[in-house]
Design goal:
Number of strands: 13
Largest sheet: 10 strands, antiparallel
Number of helices: 8
Structural class: alpha+beta
Helix content: 25-40%
Distance between the termini: 41 Å
Length: 265
């Protein structure tokens, strides 16, 4: 699983794309000339990933800010428009990059081979990145009335697991499935409470505990999450693919597909 973070949004996919995106960025002359500080930060990240032979996460927030956002958009647009005119990405061509001049080519070759295998369609990933930069979301938003989301939901697919610190408890988590309750709070705000199953390893009893809670405002296709104690904005997360009593959203860095619980008559 590869993941990409831009502002509050996280995109995940089973295909490889982190290596390709970093490689294309660092071989783009505009990045090095126009944003040298950002170039060096990304180069350091790339070299660390090479050292540990792992390209799983790319957090563009390490270089992205309001001042350079437009420049980064233009750089990604350039990469996107030139993707069919650039040298094909096979192991031999990639190894010729200046990024590997002083490296162990045998080791790097193995990493490149693995990263280029099962890689994402480049048109798809650069469309996704440009949407994230320009629109603040990777997805086509579902504009829904808050009342349509009220009620109880169960996740049917999760890209990760919400956790608390279990070190000081006698509990162990059971899987990544969550139960989500969305209920009216006050002044257009809703309670957003996620629970998951745990087992007490002394008694073997299984029960639900709350692992995430916020107050949310639902508008313009987003959940605006606020700290339930201080009421400070934490982040906004997209609501998408809302249909047939299911929808998708993100909580923390994970994507959840949620299905409405059936009412027992």
């Amino acid at each position: 699983m590869n993941s990409l973070k831009i502002f509050d949004q996280t995109f995940t996919d089973d295909t490889n794309f982190v290596f390709v995106v970093l490689f294309d960025l660092l071989n783009n002359s505009d990045l090095e000339v126009l944003l040298p500080k950002e170039y060096n930060i990304l180069l350091n990240k790339f070299n660390q990933n090479i050292e540990f032979a792992s390209f799983k996460k790319l957090d563009l927030n390490i270089v992205l800010n309001d001042e350079n956002k437009e420049s980064l958009i233009k750089i990604f647009e350039s990469i996107y428009s030139n993707r069919f005119r650039s040298i094909p990405k096979d192991e031999n061509n990639v190894l010729k990059s200046k990024l590997f001049l002083n490296g162990d080519l045998k080791k790097i070759g193995k990493i490149i081979y693995k990263q280029l295998d099962n890689r994402i369609n480049e048109t798809d990933i650069y469309n996704t990145i440009l949407n994230g930069l320009k629109c603040g979301t990777f997805y086509e938003l579902s504009i829904v009335n808050p009342e349509e989301l009220e009620g109880n939901w169960t996740s049917i697919k999760e890209s990760g697991a919400l956790r608390i610190n279990y070190n000081m408890t006698d509990w162990t988590p059971l899987g990544s499935k969550i139960e989500l309750k969305i209920e009216k709070f006050h002044s257009g705000m809703y309670k957003f409470i996620c629970s998951t199953k745990v087992m007490d390893y002394n008694t073997r009893n299984v029960f639900l505990i709350d692992v995430y809670e916020s107050n949310v405002e639902i508008k313009d296709g987003f959940f605006y999450h606020y700290n339930f104690e201080s009421n400070k904005l934490i982040y906004k997360m997209p609501i998408y693919e809302f249909e047939n009593e299911t929808f998708k959203t993100q909580i923390a860095d994970f994507e959840f597909v949620l299905q409405r619980n059936k009412t027992i008559k």
